[in-house]
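Researcher: Hi, I'm a grad student and pretty new to this. My advisor asked me to get structures for two proteins we've been looking at. I'm not sure of the right format, so I'll just paste the first sequence and hope you can take it from there.
Model: That works fine. Here's the first sequence with its C-alpha coordinates right after it:
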Amino acid sequence: MIFYNVTCNVGRSIADEWIIWMKEEHLPEVMATGMFISHTFCQLLTEAADNEGLNFTIQYKLNTMSHLDQYNLEFGPSLKQKTLDRWGEQVLAFRSVMEEV
Protein backbone atom coordinates (compact mmCIF):
# COMPACT_ATOMS: atom_id res chain seq x y z
CA MET A 1 0.00 0.00 0.00
CA ILE A 2 1.29 3.45 -0.94
CA PHE A 3 0.45 6.62 1.00
CA TYR A 4 0.70 10.10 -0.47
CA ASN A 5 0.88 12.52 2.44
CA VAL A 6 0.28 16.25 2.15
CA THR A 7 1.02 18.30 5.27
CA CYS A 8 -0.32 21.85 5.23
CA ASN A 9 0.47 24.82 7.42
CA VAL A 10 -2.59 27.06 7.33
CA GLY A 11 -2.89 30.62 8.59
CA ARG A 12 -5.05 30.74 11.71
CA SER A 13 -7.27 33.50 10.29
CA ILE A 14 -8.38 31.34 7.34
CA ALA A 15 -8.32 27.87 8.92
CA ASP A 16 -12.09 27.46 9.36
CA GLU A 17 -12.83 28.58 5.81
CA TRP A 18 -10.00 26.40 4.43
CA ILE A 19 -11.32 23.29 6.21
CA ILE A 20 -14.76 23.81 4.67
CA TRP A 21 -13.19 24.32 1.23
CA MET A 22 -11.11 21.17 1.65
CA LYS A 23 -14.08 19.04 2.65
CA GLU A 24 -16.57 20.43 0.15
CA GLU A 25 -14.40 21.19 -2.87
CA HIS A 26 -10.76 20.11 -2.94
CA LEU A 27 -10.91 16.61 -1.46
CA PRO A 28 -13.90 15.59 -3.61
CA GLU A 29 -12.00 16.85 -6.70
CA VAL A 30 -8.90 14.87 -5.79
CA MET A 31 -10.90 11.71 -5.13
CA ALA A 32 -12.83 12.17 -8.41
CA THR A 33 -9.56 11.63 -10.31
CA GLY A 34 -9.93 7.91 -9.55
CA MET A 35 -6.28 7.58 -8.59
CA PHE A 36 -6.81 7.12 -4.85
CA ILE A 37 -8.59 4.44 -2.83
CA SER A 38 -9.39 6.65 0.16
CA HIS A 39 -8.13 9.58 2.20
CA THR A 40 -7.88 10.71 5.81
CA PHE A 41 -7.94 14.42 6.73
CA CYS A 42 -6.54 15.29 10.17
CA GLN A 43 -5.42 18.25 12.22
CA LEU A 44 -2.07 17.79 13.94
CA LEU A 45 -2.37 18.30 17.67
CA THR A 46 1.37 18.64 18.31
CA GLU A 47 2.88 21.96 17.31
CA ALA A 48 6.41 23.21 16.80
CA ALA A 49 7.48 26.12 18.99
CA ASP A 50 8.06 28.37 15.97
CA ASN A 51 4.81 27.42 14.24
CA GLU A 52 2.62 30.39 13.33
CA GLY A 53 -0.36 28.56 11.82
CA LEU A 54 -2.29 25.35 12.24
CA ASN A 55 -1.06 22.10 10.73
CA PHE A 56 -3.16 19.56 8.88
CA THR A 57 -2.37 16.36 7.06
CA ILE A 58 -4.14 14.50 4.30
CA GLN A 59 -3.11 10.92 3.68
CA TYR A 60 -4.25 9.47 0.38
CA LYS A 61 -4.10 5.68 -0.11
CA LEU A 62 -3.05 4.19 -3.44
CA ASN A 63 -2.52 0.66 -4.69
CA THR A 64 0.54 1.43 -6.82
CA MET A 65 3.12 4.11 -7.50
CA SER A 66 1.93 4.23 -11.10
CA HIS A 67 -1.36 5.72 -9.86
CA LEU A 68 0.58 8.47 -8.08
CA ASP A 69 2.72 9.06 -11.17
CA GLN A 70 -0.43 9.37 -13.28
CA TYR A 71 -2.02 11.73 -10.73
CA ASN A 72 1.10 13.93 -10.71
CA LEU A 73 1.15 14.09 -14.52
CA GLU A 74 -2.54 14.50 -15.31
CA PHE A 75 -4.23 16.09 -12.30
CA GLY A 76 -1.79 17.34 -9.66
CA PRO A 77 -0.51 20.50 -11.36
CA SER A 78 -3.95 21.99 -12.02
CA LEU A 79 -5.24 21.11 -8.53
CA LYS A 80 -2.15 22.62 -6.92
CA GLN A 81 -2.59 25.76 -9.01
CA LYS A 82 -6.24 26.09 -7.95
CA THR A 83 -5.13 25.90 -4.32
CA LEU A 84 -2.43 28.51 -4.88
CA ASP A 85 -4.84 30.80 -6.71
CA ARG A 86 -7.37 30.55 -3.88
CA TRP A 87 -5.10 30.70 -0.81
CA GLY A 88 -1.72 32.01 -1.97
CA GLU A 89 0.97 31.93 0.70
CA GLN A 90 -1.59 31.47 3.48
CA VAL A 91 -1.34 27.71 2.93
CA LEU A 92 2.06 26.06 2.66
CA ALA A 93 2.21 22.38 1.71
CA PHE A 94 4.85 19.69 2.09
CA ARG A 95 4.39 16.38 0.29
CA SER A 96 5.85 12.94 1.00
CA VAL A 97 5.31 9.40 -0.23
CA MET A 98 5.35 6.39 2.06
CA GLU A 99 5.00 2.65 1.68
CA GLU A 100 3.34 0.41 4.23
CA VAL A 101 5.77 -2.14 5.69
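Researcher: Oh nice, that was easy. Here's the second one.
Model: And its structure:
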Amino acid sequence: MDILLIEDDLNDAEYIRNILPDTSIDVYASPPEEVTKEYDLIICDYFLGGVTSREFIESTNLDTPLIIISGKVDEVDVSSLPKSLNALIISKNENFKGLLQHYAKLLCRDEKVEKREHFVDYKTLFLDLVHDLKNDLMWCSYFDYLSRGDVDMDEDYLKDKIVHSSIFAFTRLTEMSDYVNSEKEVYSSLKESFEHIKGSRVIEEHKDAIEFSGEADKNITFVSSFFLSVILKNLIENSCKYADPEKPLKIDISYTEDMENHTLTVKDNAKGMTKDQSKKLFTRRQKSDSGMGMGLVVLNRIIKSHKGSIKVKTQLGQGTSIYINFPKVRPN
Protein backbone atom coordinates (compact mmCIF):
# COMPACT_ATOMS: atom_id res chain seq x y z
CA MET A 1 0.00 0.00 0.00
CA ASP A 2 1.36 3.45 -0.97
CA ILE A 3 0.28 6.33 1.29
CA LEU A 4 0.77 10.08 1.03
CA LEU A 5 0.92 11.60 4.53
CA ILE A 6 0.73 15.38 4.95
CA GLU A 7 1.77 16.14 8.54
CA ASP A 8 3.90 19.05 9.78
CA ASP A 9 4.67 17.45 13.16
CA LEU A 10 7.56 14.99 12.73
CA ASN A 11 6.66 13.13 15.92
CA ASP A 12 3.08 12.61 14.72
CA ALA A 13 4.37 11.52 11.30
CA GLU A 14 6.61 8.90 12.93
CA TYR A 15 3.72 7.78 15.14
CA ILE A 16 1.56 7.17 12.06
CA ARG A 17 4.42 5.28 10.38
CA ASN A 18 4.49 2.94 13.39
CA ILE A 19 0.73 2.44 13.24
CA LEU A 20 0.96 1.35 9.58
CA PRO A 21 4.33 -0.43 9.47
CA ASP A 22 3.70 -2.56 6.36
CA THR A 23 3.12 0.38 4.06
CA SER A 24 5.14 2.78 1.96
CA ILE A 25 4.54 6.31 3.31
CA ASP A 26 5.70 9.54 1.66
CA VAL A 27 5.63 12.39 4.20
CA TYR A 28 5.10 16.07 3.31
CA ALA A 29 5.13 18.85 5.91
CA SER A 30 2.78 20.92 3.73
CA PRO A 31 0.40 20.12 0.88
CA PRO A 32 2.28 19.52 -2.39
CA GLU A 33 1.35 21.73 -5.32
CA GLU A 34 0.78 18.61 -7.43
CA VAL A 35 0.43 14.92 -6.60
CA THR A 36 2.25 13.15 -9.45
CA LYS A 37 2.39 9.66 -7.92
CA GLU A 38 -0.59 7.32 -7.70
CA TYR A 39 -1.42 6.57 -4.07
CA ASP A 40 -3.75 4.03 -2.50
CA LEU A 41 -4.59 6.42 0.32
CA ILE A 42 -3.96 10.03 1.37
CA ILE A 43 -3.80 10.99 5.05
CA CYS A 44 -3.91 14.72 5.68
CA ASP A 45 -3.78 16.68 8.95
CA TYR A 46 -6.60 19.22 8.85
CA PHE A 47 -4.51 21.87 10.63
CA LEU A 48 -1.01 22.49 9.26
CA GLY A 49 1.12 25.24 10.79
CA GLY A 50 -1.94 26.76 12.42
CA VAL A 51 -3.95 27.03 9.18
CA THR A 52 -6.35 24.57 7.56
CA SER A 53 -5.38 22.42 4.60
CA ARG A 54 -8.79 23.15 3.04
CA GLU A 55 -7.47 24.21 -0.37
CA PHE A 56 -5.54 20.97 -0.82
CA ILE A 57 -8.43 18.84 0.49
CA GLU A 58 -10.85 20.47 -1.93
CA SER A 59 -8.54 19.85 -4.90
CA THR A 60 -7.72 16.25 -4.00
CA ASN A 61 -8.22 13.66 -6.75
CA LEU A 62 -11.64 12.14 -6.01
CA ASP A 63 -10.43 8.70 -7.05
CA THR A 64 -8.04 8.54 -4.10
CA PRO A 65 -9.51 7.76 -0.65
CA LEU A 66 -8.68 10.46 1.91
CA ILE A 67 -8.49 10.34 5.69
CA ILE A 68 -8.55 13.74 7.38
CA ILE A 69 -7.14 13.71 10.91
CA SER A 70 -7.38 16.38 13.58
CA GLY A 71 -6.74 16.81 17.27
CA LYS A 72 -9.66 19.21 17.36
CA VAL A 73 -12.37 17.55 15.31
CA ASP A 74 -14.98 20.00 16.62
CA GLU A 75 -13.16 22.77 14.77
CA VAL A 76 -13.21 20.99 11.42
CA ASP A 77 -15.55 22.84 9.05
CA VAL A 78 -17.29 19.84 7.50
CA SER A 79 -19.56 22.07 5.41
CA SER A 80 -16.56 23.32 3.44
CA LEU A 81 -15.64 19.86 2.19
CA PRO A 82 -16.96 18.70 -1.22
CA LYS A 83 -19.91 16.33 -0.81
CA SER A 84 -18.44 13.99 -3.43
CA LEU A 85 -15.09 13.72 -1.63
CA ASN A 86 -14.10 10.15 -0.83
CA ALA A 87 -13.05 11.07 2.71
CA LEU A 88 -13.33 10.23 6.39
CA ILE A 89 -12.57 12.49 9.34
CA ILE A 90 -11.11 10.93 12.49
CA SER A 91 -9.91 12.39 15.75
CA LYS A 92 -6.46 12.03 17.32
CA ASN A 93 -7.87 10.56 20.51
CA GLU A 94 -7.22 7.36 22.46
CA ASN A 95 -8.92 5.32 19.70
CA PHE A 96 -6.89 6.94 16.93
CA LYS A 97 -4.56 3.98 16.33
CA GLY A 98 -7.33 1.42 15.98
CA LEU A 99 -9.49 3.71 13.85
CA LEU A 100 -6.64 4.57 11.47
CA GLN A 101 -5.70 0.91 11.00
CA HIS A 102 -9.34 -0.04 10.45
CA TYR A 103 -10.18 2.69 7.94
CA ALA A 104 -6.88 2.41 6.09
CA LYS A 105 -7.69 -1.26 5.51
CA LEU A 106 -11.22 -0.43 4.33
CA LEU A 107 -10.23 2.43 2.04
CA CYS A 108 -7.03 1.27 0.40
CA ARG A 109 -7.26 0.12 -3.21
CA ASP A 110 -5.74 -3.32 -2.54
CA GLU A 111 -8.42 -4.16 0.00
CA LYS A 112 -11.19 -2.95 -2.29
CA VAL A 113 -10.34 -5.39 -5.06
CA GLU A 114 -10.46 -8.32 -2.66
CA LYS A 115 -14.25 -8.00 -2.76
CA ARG A 116 -15.00 -8.93 -6.32
CA GLU A 117 -17.28 -6.28 -7.73
CA HIS A 118 -18.40 -8.43 -10.65
CA PHE A 119 -20.20 -11.70 -10.08
CA VAL A 120 -19.40 -14.48 -12.54
CA ASP A 121 -21.35 -17.66 -11.81
CA TYR A 122 -19.76 -21.07 -11.74
CA LYS A 123 -21.76 -22.21 -14.75
CA THR A 124 -19.86 -19.65 -16.82
CA LEU A 125 -16.56 -20.89 -15.39
CA PHE A 126 -17.53 -24.49 -16.15
CA LEU A 127 -18.56 -23.66 -19.73
CA ASP A 128 -15.27 -21.84 -20.23
CA LEU A 129 -13.35 -24.81 -18.83
CA VAL A 130 -15.11 -27.23 -21.19
CA HIS A 131 -14.66 -24.96 -24.19
CA ASP A 132 -11.00 -24.25 -23.42
CA LEU A 133 -9.95 -27.84 -22.80
CA LYS A 134 -11.98 -30.05 -25.11
CA ASN A 135 -9.88 -29.45 -28.24
CA ASP A 136 -6.59 -29.83 -26.39
CA LEU A 137 -7.72 -32.97 -24.61
CA MET A 138 -8.89 -34.35 -27.94
CA TRP A 139 -5.30 -34.28 -29.13
CA CYS A 140 -4.17 -35.91 -25.87
CA SER A 141 -6.63 -38.74 -26.44
CA TYR A 142 -4.60 -39.77 -29.49
CA PHE A 143 -1.75 -40.86 -27.23
CA ASP A 144 -3.32 -44.28 -26.76
CA TYR A 145 -3.58 -44.76 -30.54
CA LEU A 146 -0.01 -43.54 -30.94
CA SER A 147 1.29 -46.09 -28.42
CA ARG A 148 -0.42 -48.87 -30.41
CA GLY A 149 0.67 -47.52 -33.77
CA ASP A 150 -2.96 -47.12 -34.93
CA VAL A 151 -2.68 -43.65 -36.44
CA ASP A 152 -2.42 -42.59 -40.06
CA MET A 153 -0.75 -39.18 -39.54
CA ASP A 154 2.95 -38.45 -39.08
CA GLU A 155 4.06 -39.65 -35.62
CA ASP A 156 6.40 -36.71 -34.93
CA TYR A 157 3.64 -34.27 -35.85
CA LEU A 158 1.18 -36.05 -33.57
CA LYS A 159 3.65 -36.21 -30.67
CA ASP A 160 4.25 -32.47 -30.98
CA LYS A 161 0.49 -31.81 -30.92
CA ILE A 162 -0.02 -34.04 -27.88
CA VAL A 163 2.79 -32.40 -25.89
CA HIS A 164 1.79 -28.87 -26.89
CA SER A 165 -1.90 -29.41 -26.16
CA SER A 166 -1.18 -31.08 -22.81
CA ILE A 167 0.97 -28.17 -21.66
CA PHE A 168 -1.55 -25.53 -22.77
CA ALA A 169 -4.52 -27.38 -21.23
CA PHE A 170 -2.66 -27.74 -17.94
CA THR A 171 -1.69 -24.06 -18.00
CA ARG A 172 -5.27 -22.87 -18.54
CA LEU A 173 -6.59 -25.24 -15.88
CA THR A 174 -4.00 -23.93 -13.41
CA GLU A 175 -4.92 -20.31 -14.19
CA MET A 176 -8.60 -21.06 -13.63
CA SER A 177 -7.79 -22.79 -10.34
CA ASP A 178 -5.72 -19.80 -9.23
CA TYR A 179 -8.59 -17.45 -10.09
CA VAL A 180 -11.23 -19.48 -8.24
CA ASN A 181 -9.06 -19.85 -5.14
CA SER A 182 -7.79 -16.27 -5.02
CA GLU A 183 -9.45 -13.77 -2.69
CA LYS A 184 -8.67 -10.78 -4.86
CA GLU A 185 -8.60 -9.82 -8.51
CA VAL A 186 -5.41 -9.70 -10.53
CA TYR A 187 -5.27 -7.18 -13.36
CA SER A 188 -3.07 -6.80 -16.43
CA SER A 189 -2.79 -5.13 -19.83
CA LEU A 190 -3.98 -6.54 -23.17
CA LYS A 191 -0.46 -7.62 -24.04
CA GLU A 192 0.07 -9.31 -20.69
CA SER A 193 -3.24 -11.17 -20.89
CA PHE A 194 -2.37 -12.26 -24.42
CA GLU A 195 0.74 -13.97 -23.04
CA HIS A 196 -1.56 -16.39 -21.17
CA ILE A 197 -3.36 -17.57 -24.31
CA LYS A 198 -0.78 -17.28 -27.09
CA GLY A 199 0.02 -20.99 -26.58
CA SER A 200 -3.39 -21.91 -27.99
CA ARG A 201 -2.84 -24.14 -31.02
CA VAL A 202 -5.13 -21.99 -33.16
CA ILE A 203 -3.59 -18.69 -32.07
CA GLU A 204 -0.01 -19.93 -32.33
CA GLU A 205 -0.54 -20.94 -35.95
CA HIS A 206 -1.61 -17.37 -36.77
CA LYS A 207 0.65 -15.42 -34.38
CA ASP A 208 2.26 -13.40 -37.20
CA ALA A 209 -1.17 -12.01 -38.13
CA ILE A 210 -1.76 -10.42 -34.71
CA GLU A 211 -0.91 -6.78 -33.91
CA PHE A 212 -1.71 -4.48 -31.00
CA SER A 213 -2.66 -0.81 -31.14
CA GLY A 214 -4.11 1.86 -28.85
CA GLU A 215 -3.11 1.62 -25.18
CA ALA A 216 -2.35 -2.11 -25.24
CA ASP A 217 0.29 -1.73 -22.49
CA LYS A 218 -2.04 0.05 -20.06
CA ASN A 219 -3.18 -1.90 -17.00
CA ILE A 220 -6.91 -2.71 -17.29
CA THR A 221 -8.73 -2.72 -13.94
CA PHE A 222 -12.39 -3.14 -14.93
CA VAL A 223 -12.08 -6.84 -15.79
CA SER A 224 -9.68 -9.34 -14.20
CA SER A 225 -6.64 -10.67 -16.03
CA PHE A 226 -8.17 -14.16 -16.11
CA PHE A 227 -11.40 -13.08 -17.81
CA LEU A 228 -9.59 -10.62 -20.06
CA SER A 229 -7.58 -13.57 -21.40
CA VAL A 230 -10.81 -15.57 -21.88
CA ILE A 231 -12.34 -12.70 -23.88
CA LEU A 232 -9.24 -12.33 -26.05
CA LYS A 233 -8.88 -16.07 -26.62
CA ASN A 234 -12.43 -16.52 -27.89
CA LEU A 235 -12.36 -13.49 -30.18
CA ILE A 236 -8.89 -14.16 -31.62
CA GLU A 237 -9.55 -17.88 -32.17
CA ASN A 238 -12.74 -17.11 -34.06
CA SER A 239 -10.88 -14.65 -36.28
CA CYS A 240 -8.26 -17.33 -36.93
CA LYS A 241 -10.78 -20.10 -37.62
CA TYR A 242 -12.65 -18.06 -40.22
CA ALA A 243 -9.68 -16.56 -42.02
CA ASP A 244 -10.13 -15.92 -45.72
CA PRO A 245 -7.86 -18.40 -47.58
CA GLU A 246 -7.57 -15.92 -50.45
CA LYS A 247 -5.62 -13.32 -48.44
CA PRO A 248 -3.20 -13.11 -45.47
CA LEU A 249 -5.02 -12.84 -42.15
CA LYS A 250 -4.69 -9.61 -40.17
CA ILE A 251 -5.97 -9.13 -36.59
CA ASP A 252 -5.74 -5.82 -34.75
CA ILE A 253 -6.34 -5.77 -30.97
CA SER A 254 -6.68 -2.47 -29.15
CA TYR A 255 -7.77 -0.72 -25.96
CA THR A 256 -9.04 2.85 -25.91
CA GLU A 257 -11.10 4.98 -23.54
CA ASP A 258 -13.15 8.17 -23.62
CA MET A 259 -15.30 10.07 -21.13
CA GLU A 260 -17.98 7.36 -21.09
CA ASN A 261 -16.43 3.96 -21.82
CA HIS A 262 -13.47 1.65 -21.80
CA THR A 263 -13.39 -0.14 -25.19
CA LEU A 264 -11.70 -3.37 -26.25
CA THR A 265 -11.64 -3.88 -30.02
CA VAL A 266 -10.72 -6.88 -32.15
CA LYS A 267 -10.72 -6.27 -35.92
CA ASP A 268 -9.93 -8.85 -38.59
CA ASN A 269 -10.00 -9.20 -42.36
CA ALA A 270 -11.41 -12.73 -42.23
CA LYS A 271 -14.48 -13.97 -44.12
CA GLY A 272 -16.97 -11.80 -42.29
CA MET A 273 -20.61 -12.79 -41.86
CA THR A 274 -24.18 -11.90 -42.79
CA LYS A 275 -26.31 -9.52 -40.77
CA ASP A 276 -28.42 -12.43 -39.53
CA GLN A 277 -25.33 -14.34 -38.38
CA SER A 278 -23.97 -11.32 -36.50
CA LYS A 279 -27.26 -10.90 -34.60
CA LYS A 280 -27.06 -14.48 -33.32
CA LEU A 281 -23.31 -14.47 -32.78
CA PHE A 282 -23.33 -14.39 -28.98
CA THR A 283 -26.57 -16.27 -28.31
CA ARG A 284 -26.03 -19.67 -29.93
CA ARG A 285 -26.33 -22.53 -27.46
CA GLN A 286 -24.68 -25.19 -29.58
CA LYS A 287 -22.24 -25.35 -32.44
CA SER A 288 -23.75 -24.48 -35.81
CA ASP A 289 -22.75 -25.26 -39.38
CA SER A 290 -20.81 -22.00 -39.41
CA GLY A 291 -18.74 -23.20 -36.48
CA MET A 292 -19.79 -20.38 -34.14
CA GLY A 293 -20.39 -22.09 -30.82
CA MET A 294 -20.10 -22.05 -27.06
CA GLY A 295 -16.98 -19.91 -26.78
CA LEU A 296 -18.78 -16.71 -27.76
CA VAL A 297 -21.71 -17.57 -25.48
CA VAL A 298 -19.23 -17.78 -22.57
CA LEU A 299 -17.69 -14.49 -23.66
CA ASN A 300 -21.12 -12.83 -23.71
CA ARG A 301 -21.93 -14.07 -20.20
CA ILE A 302 -18.65 -12.64 -18.88
CA ILE A 303 -19.18 -9.25 -20.51
CA LYS A 304 -22.78 -8.95 -19.31
CA SER A 305 -21.71 -9.83 -15.74
CA HIS A 306 -19.30 -6.87 -15.91
CA LYS A 307 -22.12 -4.53 -17.13
CA GLY A 308 -20.50 -4.39 -20.57
CA SER A 309 -21.97 -4.47 -24.07
CA ILE A 310 -20.91 -5.82 -27.47
CA LYS A 311 -21.21 -4.21 -30.89
CA VAL A 312 -20.43 -6.06 -34.12
CA LYS A 313 -19.62 -4.52 -37.50
CA THR A 314 -19.18 -7.07 -40.27
CA GLN A 315 -19.59 -7.69 -43.96
CA LEU A 316 -19.14 -10.85 -46.00
CA GLY A 317 -15.71 -10.85 -47.56
CA GLN A 318 -14.66 -7.71 -45.67
CA GLY A 319 -13.94 -8.99 -42.16
CA THR A 320 -15.39 -8.29 -38.73
CA SER A 321 -14.86 -5.66 -36.03
CA ILE A 322 -16.06 -6.41 -32.50
CA TYR A 323 -16.27 -3.59 -29.95
CA ILE A 324 -16.69 -4.42 -26.26
CA ASN A 325 -17.63 -1.43 -24.12
CA PHE A 326 -17.41 -1.24 -20.34
CA PRO A 327 -18.98 1.89 -18.82
CA LYS A 328 -16.86 4.07 -16.59
CA VAL A 329 -18.01 4.31 -12.98
CA ARG A 330 -19.00 7.85 -12.12
CA PRO A 331 -18.88 9.28 -8.57
CA ASN A 332 -22.31 9.99 -7.07
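Researcher: Is there anything I should tell my advisor about the second?
Model: You could mention this: The mean pLDDT is 79.
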